[in-house]
Design a protein that fits this description.
62% of the residues lie in helices and 3% in strands. It contains 17 helices and four strands. It has helices spanning 7-21, 23-29, 34-56, 58-66, 77-103, 106-113, 116-126, 133-149, 151-156, 159-184, 190-211, 221-246, 251-257, 261-273, 282-297, 329-339, 347-351, and strands at residues 129-130, 304-305, 359-362, 372-375.
């Protein structure tokens, strides 16, 4: 029996799509430099996330600062480096996407940057992950649609073609951000990681603006209103409603629904900015949406681990190696008496049992720093195997020789 979506969830879905769709029109309507807009957007996002993190995750922040989470241990340097690389990819995404909204139409910019799942699948294929025929069909449709939609810009050349290329660079950077984030945030919560990437991304954009001598103040009223709209709509309202919807529906459903950003953003640009859509680009835009929908709905089929030279499939997703901290038997028994129940198992051991990937990646470029990685695994009964690092295992001490 299929569950029925309640009216509150439908309203939250509508708010999510409308809020995120305001990103490109608000950026295109401003007069300040796109790099300055990208900096202030991340700066304002960090200003909102920072206090919320201290309010809701104060204990985690204190543990990280004191080093109790082992962020700077030898085995954690690799995730930390991947985190900086992910934030750099996010900064590139913001710079490329927000610049493309000034050089080409809002419809083209949002449609081309929405091909992020396509590039995500190609990155997975480059990592040795086999993709299904359905995924490759979606990839082909997206490529054909992008070529068809950009046909007019290719023939005319100029800034419109440059804007199309920047939109594709923004999509590739967003895919790189997602792939790098999967490798870096195995031991960090979502709020802390979002705050970290916003801070690093903002600092990198600030350095670029300083080197390029781009003014960060003295904006006119339209730019100030655009920045306020970017903070209130995609950053706060879009994020909040998206998290609410994810608790009531699947990530795949929302991924497909967010493809409505292209027509909604194009309608907003036409209504408020008198920006018309060329009829010749409509078939290509539709093909892009259809192709990305096919890729997104492929689900676990597109991420089947490829066997290695020994014929063994590597489990997905890939996490950094787990190094359990040894504890004495006395400490283990004391913890069991205090807690009254055995401690939880390492969840990565449960993920490793599945030969097919249960990962569904949900991203939207409107607020890249707050992307959600929603992960599910297939429900099936698995016979429990003894876990040697579990402190509940009974240890028998050898008898002393008299």
């Amino acid at each position: 029996m299929k569950s029925r979506i309640d009216p509150l969830t439908i309203a939250a879905m509508t708010v999510t799509v409308v809020s995120i769709s305001a990103t490109a029109p608000l950026t295109a309507a401003a007069t300040a430099s796109p790099l300055a807009m990208a900096f202030w957007r991340n700066c304002l996002g960090f200003a909102v996330l920072g206090p919320l993190l201290l309010l809701l995750r104060r204990r985690e922040v204190v543990r990280v600062v004191r080093g109790e989470r082992g962020i700077l241990r030898r085995e954690q340097w690799r995730p930390l480096v991947f985190g900086f690389l992910a934030a750099t990819a996010l900064a590139l995404h913001f710079a490329a996407f927000m610049t493309s909204t000034r050089l080409t139409s809002v419809a083209m910019s949002t449609a081309l940057v929405a091909t992020q799942p396509v590039w995500q699948a190609l990155i997975a294929a480059g990592q040795g992950v086999k993709s299904s025929r359905r995924t490759w069909t979606g990839l082909s449709l997206s490529v054909v649609g992008a070529a068809a939609a950009a046909g007019l810009d290719i023939r005319s050349g100029g800034t419109a073609l440059l804007g199309d290329l920047l939109a594709l660079v923004g999509a590739i950077a967003q895919a790189g951000y997602t792939a790098l984030s999967e490798k870096s945030r195995a031991d960090v919560s979502t709020p802390l990681y979002s705050t970290f990437t916003s801070l690093v991304c903002g600092m990198e954009l600030l350095a670029v603006c300083w080197l390029a001598d781009i003014p960060l103040t003295g904006f006119d009223r339209s730019t100030q209103l655009s920045l306020l709209g970017l903070l209130l709509l995609p950053q706060i309202l879009g994020l909040g409603s998206l998290n609410f919807v994810l608790g009531r529906t699947s990530a795949t459903t929302m991924s497909v629904l967010l493809l409505l950003e292209t027509p909604v953003a194009a309608l907003a640009a036409w209504w408020f900015m008198d920006q018309n859509i060329a009829l010749a680009t409509v078939p290509g835009l539709l093909l892009i949406i259809v192709g990305v929908t096919v890729v997104v709905t492929s689900g676990g089929e597109q991420l089947v681990p490829a066997p290695d030279e020994h014929g063994v499939a590597t489990p997905m997703p890939a996490y950094p190696p787990h190094f359990p901290q040894p504890r004495s038997v006395t400490m283990q028994l004391t913890l069991r008496r205090q807690i009254g129940r055995p401690p939880g198992r390492d969840p990565r051991l449960d993920w490793a049992r599945h030969t097919e990937s249960p990962t569904v990646t949900l991203t939207y470029h409107g607020a890249g720093a707050f992307d959600t990685l929603h992960m599910r695994k297939p429900r099936r009964k698995v016979t429990e195997e003894p876990f040697t690092d579990d402190p509940t295992v009974t240890l028998t001490a050898p008898a002393r020789q008299g």
